[in-house]
C-alpha cells in the first residue's frame, strides 16, 4: 500500500513539474456585451466551442483565440502552438462572407476576440474544422 502511495505521489509530482501548457487561452473576464440580436453573450474559448459546440449552435458568441486568414485557411485556434502547427483539431472555421467586419483587413497570428454566431457543423476547407463562426459583428485584436 505504501509503495502504491509513493508511486502516486511521484506521478503527480512528475506531471505537475513537466506538464506545461504553452500559451493556451483562458477567457478574459470581459464584460458581457449586447450585439444586434439583443442577446447577452458570454466570453468563451475555442476549447469551449470544440467541447460543447452543440450547446452554442446558432447562438451569438464572443470567443477568444489566435487567428489566421490565408487562402483556404481562415480559422481561430485554441492555442498559439496549435496555430503554428496548423492543427485543425484545435480550431474553428471563420466564415467572413456577409459579415460586418472589414473584409480588407487581414488578421494573422494575432490574439483576438471575435463577436459573431456559431454553427456546430463540419466546416471549412475540405471539412477539416468542427464548427464555424459566421455573421461576424466585430474582431478585436488583444494586446499581448
Structural description of this entry:
The protein has 144 residues and is an alpha+beta fold. It has one domain (22-141): OB fold (Dihydrolipoamide Acetyltransferase, E2P) (Beta Barrel), CATH 2.40.50. It contains three helices and eight strands, in the order H-E-E-E-H-E-E-H-E-E-E. It has helices at 2-18, 46-52, 80-85; strands at 33-34, 40-41, 43-45, 59-70, 73-77, 91-94, 110-119, 132-141. The chain has a five-stranded mixed beta barrel with strand order 4-5-6-8-7. A two-stranded antiparallel sheet has the order 1-2. Helix 2 (46-52) links the parallel strand 3 (43-45) and strand 4. The longest helix has 17 residues, at 2-18. It is globular, with a radius of gyration of 18 Å. The N and C termini lie far apart (48 Å). Mean pLDDT is 76; it is low at 10-38.
What is the topology?
Blueprint: H1 2-18, E1 33-34, E2 40-41, E3 43-45, H2 46-52, E4 59-70, E5 73-77, H3 80-85, E6 91-94, E7 110-119, E8 132-141
Parallel strand pairs: 3-4, 6-8
Antiparallel strand pairs: 1-2, 4-5, 4-7, 5-6, 7-8
Write a brief structural summary.
The chain has 144 residues and is of the alpha+beta class. It has helices spanning 2-18, 46-52, 80-85; strands spanning 33-34, 40-41, 43-45, 59-70, 73-77, 91-94, 110-119, 132-141.
Radius of gyration of CA atoms, rounded to a whole number: 18 Å
Count of helical regions:
3
**Beta-strand residue fraction:** 25-35%
CATH superfamily: Nucleic acid-binding proteins
Q: What count of structural domains?
A: 1
**Side-by-side strand order of the widest sheet:** 4-5-6-8-7
The CATH topology is what?
Answer: OB fold (Dihydrolipoamide Acetyltransferase, E2P)
Order of helices and strands: HEEEHEEHEEE
CATH architecture: Beta Barrel
Mean pLDDT: 76
Amino acid at each position: 500500500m505504501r509503495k502504491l502511495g509513493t508511486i502516486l505521489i511521484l506521478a503527480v509530482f512528475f506531471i505537475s513539474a513537466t506538464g506545461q501548457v504553452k500559451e493556451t487561452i483562458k477567457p478574459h473576464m470581459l464584460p458581457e456585451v449586447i450585439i444586434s440580436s439583443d442577446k447577452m453573450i458570454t466570453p468563451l474559448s475555442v476549447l469551449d466551442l470544440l467541447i460543447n459546440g452543440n450547446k452554442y449552435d446558432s447562438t451569438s458568441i464572443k470567443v477568444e483565440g489566435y487567428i489566421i486568414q490565408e487562402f483556404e485557411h481562415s480559422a481561430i485556434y485554441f492555442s498559439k502552438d496549435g496555430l503554428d502547427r496548423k492543427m485543425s483539431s484545435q480550431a474553428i472555421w471563420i466564415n467572413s462572407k456577409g459579415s460586418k467586419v472589414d473584409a480588407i483587413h487581414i488578421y494573422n497570428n494575432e490574439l483576438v476576440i471575435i463577436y459573431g454566431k456559431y454553427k456546430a457543423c463540419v466546416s471549412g476547407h475540405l471539412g477539416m474544422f468542427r464548427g464555424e463562426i459566421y455573421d461576424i459583428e466585430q474582431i478585436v485584436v488583444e494586446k499581448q
